[in-house]
Amino acid sequence: MSENTTTHHGPSPAQRTGTFTCLRCGLVVADLAPDDSRRNHCPSCLESRHTVDHREGGLSDCGGRMTPLSIAVLRTGRWAVVHRCTRCTELSLHQVAADDNQLILMRLAVRPLAEPPFPLEVFGEL
Hints:
This protein is α+β, with helices and mostly antiparallel strands. The protein is 14% helix and 23% strand. It is built from two helices and six strands. Strands 3-4-5-6 form a four-stranded antiparallel sheet, covered by helices on one side. A two-stranded antiparallel sheet has the order 1-2. The longest helix is centred in the C-terminal third of the chain and has 13 residues, at 102-114. It starts with 12 loop residues before the first helix and ends in a 12-residue tail after the last helix.
């Protein structure tokens, strides 16, 4: 490697200073999560914006608000937030970041137990 050659490690300066404003709560959010991964949802309310077309690939022109529905556990053991677009109803997964609101994450995780789709009395009859 020559003297003039530099190696690039980590996010670019533009990524480090980039922000977006949450569509729901208005929080100004850094584009990067604490682990330097690209953030795609608000750490406060977990809302997102529909910018990626997961069916076709590439960018989406929808721009609708992505509302958190549930939690999914990935094969790696990491959690992801399941979002649904309020405009076109497309579903997507966004990995949980270290600084995401833990109370909302837990509410999403226990929702199926707190609001089951069937009466719990059925278990008493088994």
